[in-house]
C-alpha cells in the first residue's frame, strides 16, 4: 500500500493515501491560486477521511492557509531563491492524530537544543570506506538497503521502478562503500529553480551503525550541492531518531519546528523535526 503522487492546478504537486493517512502538498505551483488549492485538498481529505493535511508553501501564501484553519508547525527562512521563506502548515482533521504526542521525546529534544556541540572523531577507521555518487545502475543495491532498513516508508523507496524514476526526476544519491560493498546511502531531492534541496533517505545497514557514516554522506552531499549552486539545505529527521537529529545539529543545521504525527516510517506514524542550513 503506497500513497499516490499527483498534480493539481498548473504545477502543484501532492502526495496522499492511507499509508500516511494525510494529504501532503509538496509544492505549490507558482501560478496556482492558493485558495483554489486549499479547497481542492480540503475536499480530497474529507472524501478520503484523512486525519491530517500538511503543506510546504511560500510565505506569501501562508495567510490563505492560516485563515482556513491551518497551523504553522515549522518555517525555513530564505528558502526559495535565497529570498522567500517556506512555511510548513498543517490541519488536523481527527483529534486522534494529536493524541499520545511523544512528550518525553519532545522534552529530550528541548534539552538537546540547549547544547550545540560539534562532530568529534570517534576513532573509527575509515580506510576501507569510500563515498561516491551513485548512478541509476546501482538501483538494485539501493532498494536492497532500503528494504532491509525500513519496515515502512512514506515513499516507495524499496520499489526499483520508483527509485529509477527519482533518478530521472533529478534526485541524487550518494553511497558509502566498505570493502567494495554498499553499506549506507542518502539522497538529495533538488529544487534547482528554488535553489534548495532536501537531505533525505539516510539508511545504514544494521551491522554498520555507530560509525558516523551519515556524517560522511552528509559532507559529500553538502559539497555537491554547493558546487551545483544550491544554497538552502533542509531535512525532516524522525523525532524518534535522536541520532539523526543530533547529526544535523552538530553539522550546524538549525531546528525550526516539529511536524506532529506526520509520516508512516518504521512501522508507525511518527513526528518529524525540520532542520535547515544555508550554504
List the helices and strands and how they pair.
Blueprint: E1 4-8, E2 12-17, E3 22-27, H1 34-48, E4 52-58, H2 62-66, E5 71-80, E6 84-92, H3 103-113, E7 129-133, H4 139-149, H5 160-168, E8 172-178, E9 181-191, E10 196-204, H6 213-227, E11 232-238, H7 242-250, E12 254-265, E13 268-278
Parallel strand pairs: 3-4, 10-11
Antiparallel strand pairs: 1-2, 2-3, 4-6, 5-6, 7-8, 8-9, 9-10, 11-13, 12-13
GO molecular function, one term: N-acetyltransferase activity
Organism: Draconibacterium sediminis
Pfam families: Acetyltransf_1 (PF00583)
Structure, described:
With 279 residues, this protein is of the alpha+beta class. It folds into 2 domains: 4-97, 3-Layer(aba) Sandwich (Aminopeptidase); 129-278, 3-Layer(aba) Sandwich (Aminopeptidase). Helix content is 27%, strand content 38%. Strand 5 and strand 6 (84-92) form a beta hairpin. The longest helix has 15 residues, at 34-48.
Amino acid at each position: 500500500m503506497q500513497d499516490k503522487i499527483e498534480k493539481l492546478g498548473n504545477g502543484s504537486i501532492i502526495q496522499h493515501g492511507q499509508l500516511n493517512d494525510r494529504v501532503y502538498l509538496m509544492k505549490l505551483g507558482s501560478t496556482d491560486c492558493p485558495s483554489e488549492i486549499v479547497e481542492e485538498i480540503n475536499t480530497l481529505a474529507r472524501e478520503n477521511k484523512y486525519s491530517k493535511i500538511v503543506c510546504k508553501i511560500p510565505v506569501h501564501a501562508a495567510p490563505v492557509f492560516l485563515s482556513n484553519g491551518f497551523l504553522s508547525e515549522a518555517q525555513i527562512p530564505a528558502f526559495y531563491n535565497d529570498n522567500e521563506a517556506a512555511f510548513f502548515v498543517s490541519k488536523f482533521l481527527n483529534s486522534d492524530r494529536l493524541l499520545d504526542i511523544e512528550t518525553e521525546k519532545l522534552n529530550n529534544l528541548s534539552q538537546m537544543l540547549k547544547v550545540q556541540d560539534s562532530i568529534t572523531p570517534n576513532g573509527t577507521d575509515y580506510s576501507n570506506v569510500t563515498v561516491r555518487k551513485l548512478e541509476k545502475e546501482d538501483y538494485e543495491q539501493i532498494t536492497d538497503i532500503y528494504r532491509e532498513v525500513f519496515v515502512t516508508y512514506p515513499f516507495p523507496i524499496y520499489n526499483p521502478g520508483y527509485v529509477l524514476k527519482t533518478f530521472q526526476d533529478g534526485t541524487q544519491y550518494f553511497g558509502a562503500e566498505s570493502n567494495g560493498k554498499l553499506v549506507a546511502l542518502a539522497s538529495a531531492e533538488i529544487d534547482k529553480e528554488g535553489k534548495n534541496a532536501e537531505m533525505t533517505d539516510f539508511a545504514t545497514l544494521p551491522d554498520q551503525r555507530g560509525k558516523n557514516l551519515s556524517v560522511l554522506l552528509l559532507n559529500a552531499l553538502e559539497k555537491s550541492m554547493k558546487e551545483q549552486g544550491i544554497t538552502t539545505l533542509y531535512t525532516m529527521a524522525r523525532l524518534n531518531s535522536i541520532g539523526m537529529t543530533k547529526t544535523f545539529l552538530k553539522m550546524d543545521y538549525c531546528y525550526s519546528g516539529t511536524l506532529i504525527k506526520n509520516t508512516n516510517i518504521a512501522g508507525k506514524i511518527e513526528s518529524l523535526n525540520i532542520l535547515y542550513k544555508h550554504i
